Structures are given as structure tokens and as C-alpha cells.
Amino acid sequence: MLVFDMAGTTINEDNLVYKTLRNAINEAGFSFNLEQVLAEGAGKEKKQAIRAVLSTYAGVEDQQLTDTIYKHFIIQLTEAYAKEDISAQPYAADLFAALKERNILRILNTGYDRQTATNILHKIGWQEGLEYDALVTASDVPRNRPEPDMILFAMQQFHINDSSAIVKVGDSTVDIEEGKNAGCGMSIGITTGAHTKAQLETAGPDYIISNLMELLPLLR
User: Fold this and answer.
1) Element spanning 170, H or E
2) Which member of 6, 69, 175, 199 has the lowest number of beta carbons within 10 Å of its beta carbon?
3) pLDDT tens-digit profile of 188-201?
């Protein structure tokens, strides 16, 4: 089983989610830049990301404020995804087809809630059973990245007991931490999204790749 993050890993949206998250936070009276939001928020469930940015850079811990920002963020993100161009990452379709030929399960997981993730997949035309085998979202589990709950949930769905047979791929440090916490056989960073190679290296990935097709030789 391969477990892939969505935005920045398998879907190309030019950090639209984090630009929108930055705008929603700053509308509440802050002035964070995109690099700060990416550093603390990338890969996380989005309320968790808001809390991390506010706490780290402003010393603010206010659940009501977090909830308010999140509500505005979801509205803005829905509007942004409806009008902005998003697409599959280069080589995603080829990789998914190659994995299907090898009878390797292709799981998408994400810090989005299920409705947002489903809207994104609908927009790019991906269908369960064709491009991917299952979707697991932040709203499906009690704990989110870097906790392993989303991967464990996918394992339960497909009756997989050995996490060493799983590979996690993502563009943020919390993706890598999630894979390690789940006991995945490999946790792989990719430089197509939120975090740079140097940032990914801080999480101790097994490999760092620059495009999705670089996965196939590693699987052999």
C-alpha cells in the first residue's frame, strides 16, 4: 500500500490552500507571511495549522478565534478552488497506473475535511477505484498528523496488519512524521509542495524525491 498526501504531493495547486489560510488568519488582525504559514501549518489538519501559526508567531491560544478563522477559511477555500486552476501533479496518472498494474493499493490522505477533499478530487476528475483506491481525511479520524490515525484507518479498511508493507509519501515534515509514527516501511518526502528539501530532511525521511516517478525504483 502507498499512502499519498494530496495538495503539493499528488495535486498541483501552487500552495493555494496555504495562501488562503494566510489570508484568513491575517484578516483577523495579523500579518503573517506565506513562509511562516508553510513552516508551521503544512500538512496539518487546518484548525491544527491555525492554532500552530497563532501560537508560534503571536503567542495566541484562543479556540474561539481559531474556530472563527477556520470558518472563514473554509468559505474562502471553497471559492478559491472553484475558480482557480488545479491539476494532477506531473507523473501522477502514470504512477497510479503503474501501481495498479502491480496490484499496489493507492490511498490518498489529507489534512482537509472530507467535503473539501472530495470537491478537489471531483474538480480534477479523479474517481475512487480508477485513479485511487480510497480517500482518508482529517475528519475521518480522532487524531491528525503527525499521529498515525489516518494510515491506521486505511490499514483497517483493507485488512492490512503489517505497517512495514506501507509507504507514505508527502511534501511536508508532518507527512514524514506520520509515516514514521505508523511504522511504515518507508516514509518519503517530495519537494513538489510545501517544504524544501532542507526542511524535509529535519524529519528524517528514508528518501527525498523530486517527482512522483522516482518512487518506482525505490519500490523495487
Assistant:
1) strand 167-170
2) 199
3) 999 999 899 999 99
Q: How far is residue 168's CA from residue 209's CA, in Å, rounded to a whole number?
A: 12
Non-local (6+) Cβ contacts of 90 within 8 A are 12, 211, 212
Are 184 and 166 in contact by the 8 Å Cβ rule? The answer is yes
Same domain, 123 and 204: yes
Residues 92 and 143 in one domain: yes
pTM: 0.89
Q: Is residue 58 domain-shared with residue 91, that is, in the same domain? A: no
DSSP letters, 198-213, are HHHHTT--SEEESSGG
Number of independent structural domains in the chain: 2
Per residue in 43-95, pLDDT tens? 899 999 999 999 999 999 999 999 999 999 999 998 998 888 899 999 999 99
